[in-house]
């Protein structure tokens, strides 16, 4: 898209759909061309994914602008949110699947799924009924299982879960280009919106998702979305200084151009002062008027402005490139390389549970949520999540052994207690006889687990931890935790598939005949008990689930009944006042305009009513009239006001449902007069104080 080089301020009007679409098209085409020649070939620059990204970013530009709000550093005429949004969503160096190939995000999602099922005591059913038994070939193709060892779940259980996730669309009928890389997050079926087919692989995946607590699934999704928009707001806040500087330079540029045009208009000698290549004819310079000498100086000044504008753009590009790596930076690097506003916003930002965010990413992608296709902040959050996973630097057993051997003779102090020294008492002081016990005995009494023997395995790494700046008061806890983690390998939830070799078969052959009958009898008994136990668990689970559902329905009925009564009372008041002349209502003596500190959403009203109300109620106010009802705006409101004389039935019911869902106070305007309605808002705000 070509621009007029004589003007920067107010050059583009993106309210024009043609200009808007052309700009987006240029941004995405330029990004694709750059990545094809110089960029990362793992970027999603194929036609389908690039088109999907562009369409989604264009469709949601206004929604994104509203979500980012005042954090976007807008300078009228020189800063355009549409341009920044298009650039960010077009220019991405890595797609989700590229990050997954490097960091195994799907493996992290599988761990969260198993953790959630285990917390809800649903593992016994899922492992037996929903997870497939894998062949040796199927197990070998899973990329995640060699990362490390999980202290809770066995390799076999993790591999089965990962298999269900990455093969969820295998049976879907969809064209896949030959030689296409295996993608686990945005595969071809997902990209083409053909993943929701009634096929075995999808059925297995959907049953696994249905086994999860829906509230926990929704909580994970909400957290991902909240962090996405937090990053977006923080990023744009960090651009404030860049935009302010660019605004100043652009306005200076335009002033100089206008001045230059005036000089050249007054002095005709400008037409003979330049060579064909644009350089100044030096032999003529001394003969020119002072007017034209000013022209030359202005031309140089304009060039300097253009250079500064280019530098600002380059600075913004470098900032965007470094943003996704923010959590990796040291405090010193953050201070030196990143804007002060961003550092202030991000100081409390953390990835508390990367497994939950990895699941939310996979779930949102599978459900074709627009948020995932607005790439820049989505892939940035995915990268930050991946960088927070324990295996980011890859577990290397040889490295650990070499490190232990290197520090083995440094004589580090043993800072753990003697777990077998019996100097603790199990009885109260009033008892005649107090039995002495050790820590190992107390711990076994509480857990039924035998304490690992070698709890000093990592003591020799004291100097290494000091080099890594681990505080001394934390090293005691870390040493013990590492020993327990190291000892837990091999005792995980889930069964291992074992294969007996020929030598072992020969050694145990003689015993098999003697034990065969006993084993068969025990198997029958175990099978019978297992079936009985399963039936009891299923009955208990179904009863608890039914009771919980009934309680929820009863609570919902109570809430809805109460809300209906309150709403009916308010509507009665509206009807009563509509039948009485407004002139009889005394003037409350309220001073307008009134600035609202809390977020107020106003729904309905004629154009003249809205125009007048806008002048009387200012501040944090959003009026929704003849526009799509935005759930996020209503969810974040402190109060919602409805003008019943100008609102559609569908909008009315949608607004009331959302207010009930998020427990937002809802009020009705009692008058058609904009001033009376403004006074209502003020009176209600004063009462809340």
Estimated share of beta-strand residues: under 5%
* Biggest pleated sheet: 4 strands, parallel
Mean of residue pLDDT? 79
Physical arrangement of strands within the biggest beta sheet: 4-3-5-6
List the total number of helices: 29
Considering DSSP H and I runs of 4 or more, what fraction of the residues is helical? Answer: 55-70%
Backbone structural class: mainly alpha
Shape: globular
Instruction: Tell me the total number of β-strands.
Output: 6
The radius of gyration computed from the alpha-carbon positions, rounded to a whole number of angstroms, is 34 Å
| N- to C-terminal distance | 53 Å
The tally of structural domains comes to 5
Q: pLDDT below 50 for ≥5 consecutive residues: which ranges?
A: 395-399, 495-505
Compact overview of the structure:
The chain is mainly alpha-helical and 689 residues long. The chain has 29 helices and six strands.
Give an overview of the whole structure.
With 689 residues, this protein is mainly alpha-helical. It folds into 5 domains: 17-93, no CATH class; 103-233 and 359-368, no CATH class; 240-338; 397-488, no CATH class; 582-688, Rossmann fold (3-Layer(aba) Sandwich), CATH 3.40.50. Helices cover 60% and strands 4% of the residues. The chain has 29 helices and 6 strands. The strands form 2 sheets. A 4-stranded parallel sheet has the order 4-3-5-6. The protein has a two-stranded antiparallel ribbon with strand order 1-2. Helix 26 links the parallel strand 3 and strand 4 (617-624). Helix 1 (17-37) runs parallel beside helix 4 (81-90). The two termini are 53 Å apart. The model is unreliable at 395-399 and 495-505 (pLDDT under 50).
């Amino acid at each position: 898209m070509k621009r007029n080089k004589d003007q920067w301020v107010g050059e583009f009007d993106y309210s024009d759909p043609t200009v808007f679409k052309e700009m987006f098209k240029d941004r995405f085409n330029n990004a694709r061309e750059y990545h094809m020649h110089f960029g990362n070939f793992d970027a999603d620059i194929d036609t389908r994914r690039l088109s999907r990204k562009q369409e989604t970013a264009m469709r949601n530009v206004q929604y994104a602008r509203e979500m980012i709000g005042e954090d976007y550093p807008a300078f009228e005429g020189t800063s355009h949110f549409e341009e920044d949004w298009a650039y960010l969503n077009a220019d991405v160096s890595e797609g989700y699947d590229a990050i997954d190939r490097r960091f195994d995000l799907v493996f992290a999602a599988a761990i969260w799924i198993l953790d959630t099922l285990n917390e809800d005591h649903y593992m016994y059913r899922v492992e037996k009924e929903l997870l497939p038994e894998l062949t040796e070939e199927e197990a070998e193709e899973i990329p995640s299982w060699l990362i490390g060892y999980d202290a809770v779940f066995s390799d076999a259980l993790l591999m089965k879960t990962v298999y269900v996730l990455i093969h969820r669309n295998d049976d879907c009928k969809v064209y896949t280009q030959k030689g296409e890389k295996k993608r686990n997050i945005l595969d071809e079926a997902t990209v083409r919106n053909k993943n929701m087919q009634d096929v075995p692989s999808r059925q297995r995946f959907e049953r696994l998702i249905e086994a999860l607590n829906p509230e926990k699934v929704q909580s994970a999704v909400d957290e991902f979305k909240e962090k996405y928009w937090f990053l977006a707001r923080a990023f744009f806040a960090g651009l404030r200084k860049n935009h302010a500087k660019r605004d100043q330079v652009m306005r200076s540029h335009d002033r100089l151009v206008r001045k230059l045009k005036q000089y050249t208009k007054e002095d005709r000698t400008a037409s003979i002062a330049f060579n064909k290549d644009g350089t100044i004819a030096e032999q003529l310079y001394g003969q020119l008027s002072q007017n034209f000498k000013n022209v030359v100086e202005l031309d140089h000044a304009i060039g300097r402005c253009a250079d500064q504008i280019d530098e600002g753009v380059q600075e913004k590009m470098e900032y965007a490139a470094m943003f996704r790596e923010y959590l990796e930076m040291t405090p010193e690097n953050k201070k030196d390389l990143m804007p002060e506003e961003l550092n202030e916003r991000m100081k409390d930002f953390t990835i508390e549970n990367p497994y939950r965010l990895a699941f939310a990413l996979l779930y949102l992608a599978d459900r074709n949520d627009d948020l995932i296709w607005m790439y820049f902040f989505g892939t940035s959050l995915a990268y930050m999540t991946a960088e927070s996973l324990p295996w980011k630097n890859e577990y290397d057993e040889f490295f650990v052994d070499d490190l232990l051997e290197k520090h083995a003779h440094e004589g580090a102090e043993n800072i753990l207690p003697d777990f077998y020294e019996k100097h603790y008492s199990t009885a109260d002081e009033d008892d005649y006889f107090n039995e002495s016990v050790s820590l190992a005995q107390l711990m076994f009494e509480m857990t039924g687990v035998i304490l690992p023997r070698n709890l000093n395995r990592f003591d020799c790494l004291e100097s290494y931890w000091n080099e890594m700046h681990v505080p001394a008061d934390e090293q005691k806890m870390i040493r013990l935790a590492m020993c327990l983690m190291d000892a837990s390998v091999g005792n995980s939830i889930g069964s291992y598939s074992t294969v007996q070799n020929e030598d072992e078969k020969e050694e145990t052959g003689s015993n098999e005949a003697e034990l065969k009958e006993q084993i068969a009898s025990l198997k029958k008994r175990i099978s019978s008990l297992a079936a009985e136990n399963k039936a009891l668990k299923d009955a208990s689970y179904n009863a608890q689930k039914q009771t919980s559902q009934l309680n929820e329905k009863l609570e919902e009925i109570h809430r809805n009944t109460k809300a209906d009564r309150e709403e009916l009372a308010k509507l009665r008041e509206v009807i009563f006042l509509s039948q009485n002349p407004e002139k009889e209502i005394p003037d409350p003596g309220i001073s307008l305009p009134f600035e609202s500190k809390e977020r107020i959403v106003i729904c309905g009203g004629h154009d003249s009513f809205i125009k007048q109300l806008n002048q009387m109620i200012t501040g944090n106010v959003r009026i929704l009239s003849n526009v799509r009802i935005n759930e996020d705006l209503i969810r974040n409101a402190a109060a919602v006001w409805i003008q019943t004389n100008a609102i559609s039935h569908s909008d009315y019911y949608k607004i009331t449902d959302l207010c009930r869902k998020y427990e937002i106070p809802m009020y009705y305007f009692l008058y058609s007069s904009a001033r009376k309605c403004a006074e209502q808002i003020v009176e209600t705000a004063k009462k809340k104080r």
